[in-house]
Amino acid sequence: MRNKKKADILLAVLIVLFIGVNIIKAFLGDTYLMRMITFVFEAALVGSIADWFAITALYKKPLGFFSWHTAIIPKNREKVIEAVSKMVENELMSKKMIQKKIENIDFSKYIIEYVENDAKKRGYISDLCIKLLDMLDSEKISDHIEKWLKTKAYEIDIYSYINQFTDSIFKSSEADRFINTVLDYVIDLSKKDQVRLNIENFLDDIVEDNVESKGFFSRLALGIAERTNSVNTEEAAEAVQKEIIDLLFRLKNKNDEMRISIEKKVMEAVYESENQSKIAEYIDKFKNDAVDVTNIKRDIESILNSFIVSLRDELTERKNNINSINDKENVTAISVKNSVYDAKATVEWLENQIYINWYNFKTSDEAKSNLNRYIRIFILKIIRSQHNVIGKVVKDTLSTFTDEALNDFVEDKAGEELHWIRINGCIVGAVFGILVFLFTNEIYAPIIKYLFEH
Questions:
Q1: Cα 417 from Cα 421, distance rounded (Å)
Q2: What UniProt keywords are attached to this protein's entry (predicted)?
Q3: Which pTM does this prediction carry?
Q4: Is the pLDDT of residue 440 over 60?
Q5: Which of 79-93, 201-215, 391-405 has the lowest mean pLDDT?
Q6: Can you tell me the distance from the alpha carbon of 110 to that of 445, in angstroms, rounded to the nearest whole number?
Q7: How many Å separate Cα 222 from the centre of its chain?
């Protein structure tokens, strides 16, 4: 420490000069000048020694044996540590001071400089996206998606949509066309051979049931009738099929009495409150049961995993091929088709959106101001709740110091100023010595002599 070395040298010089002046005084005699020089050096030496003693007493025992009110810092280490920690916490790094400093920091500026000058050159966007993908837990995401879909499905009132649909059909001019379309579809189905076979099987079942329920003679008569084609289920099925088709064709006529009657009964059944309630309850139960037994989690997870792998591969490839990223300030949105299934297109779309939003952020004073405000609020919230940690860290750190290390710490931080006090003590002592000597010899002594003589 420079001031300590200066103070030590000055003290040594004063001791030598004081001894030398007294030796010279012994040879030259007690002249006025020699008395003044001796007094000045004596005052300077006393001031220097007194300050040396005071400064040294802070750290240890001066000369190793002065123990009264010495080694102040080691003896009061707990108080010193507590005072230092409180000073750092409440003065050097107080909440108001930190808040004032934070309010003057333009965080958005540093963020923009980092991204523009460093992050983009290293394929930061690809790195960030890959890290985000690696953080994804596809199983949990799939589970959340499935639960969300099921929750939404439970909330859907299917009957209200059906009711709205029937309203729009029956109360619009499209009703007849819709009914005829349905009838055409049913007619096409009725013409199929499988329908005839089903009718035939149905009739065979009826015939068989009737035979089993009758006595012996009835079964014998029915058997003879079948052998003589008196009962032919195949022909009966054809006749029934034809009758059904004819009936459906007749129903296509909107003025047909049966059609009018059916429409009326259907409308009554649909709009009757009791029936509506039952239908709604049945449909809702059917829907909920279907949702309960539906398990799409694995399917979602499989699709999600495949898509994540595709995205990661595409991002890795793009990252490896990046030499530099140009500033895309004038970039415009691109049209992406089937981006959900196309990893490359999705990555391009994501990058494009990032560049667009990044440019919008850079050129928006409001956006940068909002970002600064959010960051300051976040930091200040942490500081308000954890500000006492500053003092605790300082206290815990200083508590690990030995007495010697604590002395070195204090001297390192304040030693230059403390040892300058020693230099000041020497200078002030010398100046004060001159003033006292002159006052004593030129003012005080003549006045006293004059008073005693008169």
A1: 7
A2: Membrane, Transmembrane, Transmembrane helix
A3: 0.39
A4: yes
A5: 201-215
A6: 74
A7: 85
Structure tokens at 266: 């259907």
b/e 245-280 (16+ beta carbons within 10 angstroms → b): beebeebeeeeeeebeeebeeeeeeeeeeeeeeebb
Tokens at 7, concatenated: 């103070």
Give the mean model confidence (pLDDT) for residues 156-172.
73
**If phi over 0 gives left and psi between -120 and 50 gives alpha, with beta otherwise, what is residue 229?**
left
Is the distance from CB of 190 to CB of 244 less than 8 angstroms? Answer: yes
Lowest mean pLDDT among 114-118, 140-144, 212-216, 422-426: 212-216
Burial 136-156 (b: 16+ CB within 10 A, else e): eebeeebeebbeeebeeeeee
Residue 38: CB atoms within 10 Å: 19
- Reply yes or no on whether the pLDDT at 219 is more than 60: no
